[in-house]
Amino acid sequence: MMNSESPAGAEVGTALDVNRLRKDFPALRRMVNGHPLVYFDNTAATLKPQSVIDSISRVYSDYPANVHRGIHMLSEEATNAYEEARVKVARFLNAREPDEIVYTLNTTDSINHIAGSWGEANIGPGDEVLVTDMEHHANFVPWQQLCMRKGAKFQVAHVLSSGQLDREDFDSKLNERTKLVACAHVSNVSAVVNPIRELAEQAHRVGAIFVADCAQSVPHMPVDLQALGADFIACSAYKFLAPFGVGILWGRRELLDSMPPYRTGGNMIAEVSREHTRFNVAPHKFEAGTPSIADVIGMGAAIDYLEQWGMQAIYEHEVELSRYMHERLADMPGVRVIGDWFPGKPAIASFHLDYAHPHDVAQFLNEEGVAVRSGLHCAEPLHCALGLSSSTRASLYLYNTHDEIDRMIAAIKTVEEIFA
Ligand code: PLP
Question: Hey, what domains does the chain have and what are their CATH numbers?
């Protein structure tokens, strides 16, 4: 039996010194409607530690110069910090080399790069693309639209009522016409963790490539790209403590080399004449125009911060919070959590109250200083498949605590008293 008691006082039982690390996040000092902020909207965006804020501010105060093009000191400093971040990302995700890391705007942009470059060049009439019902729209709509443009068949594998992928349905829709499979590593609604390595091996056996949407795994658990076995992955840096405006596309070197650029213009060329343009090599051929330099450098600082605590320790802390949150929610009548609990479940709980609309729940929780999200979470096919019109989502991160879960539960109880 799991122990349902909230550890009193300090956060115990994990390697993270949560009470200490909370001091690194200025937003946690905020009061919301007279209450200390409880920030449970981490799936949408995370708070930023002071070290990340300082690193951005240093760029603008000390070396606010453009990268790659200048030989003056400020440009060299900016270029070095910008490229150093690429080395950090490669190390963080265990990529084979930094040049497999392409900076984008966010996960959506990364996936559009794959669809707009590899997809446009390799998908044609009669081909098939397979996704799942649990995808965020970012990993659904670009593939659907690509198939419509190219006369290919868009296949969607179903989910079970447990929230897990229906493997029989997936198997039945994967065949030798499938050219690409795209699937979330972790669902942003049910927190289901898909067995990417197994699914990618299956895709490879029929000659398809595999795209893993790692937007909700990279921030919360150790991710080893080489062990994962996908051909491309996508994620958003602002979901792992970094600034907004930068995402990551990782691709196998041989695939990146074979792909045409997604956008053309400055910064991505080797040589331009009136008649001809020779493109730069990957990753630069995918980074047209002036990038979001300070945000990329801030992402490097975020990785330093996460590595200081360790992704395994962060994951274990979140899994413990997840266990506690799901247990407390399970005790409440009229609360239906999307997807079954499973050991190791990341700390996301999307739920529906029998007696109140998700928007009312989120609004009431905000009155109590608890920030959650309500709606479809950009996962309309999943809500539709599970027969839900919307849900309320609590998603936690390394700085959250058992006491904060108690505060959310107390606020939900008040909602029950008012609406039930
Ligand atoms: N994929 C998943 C699983 C997500 O959770 C999100 C955002 O929440 C996205 C993709 C899209 O991310 P972005 O809006 O940063 O492109």
Answer: 7-48+310-415 (3.90.1150.10), 53-307 (3.40.640.10)
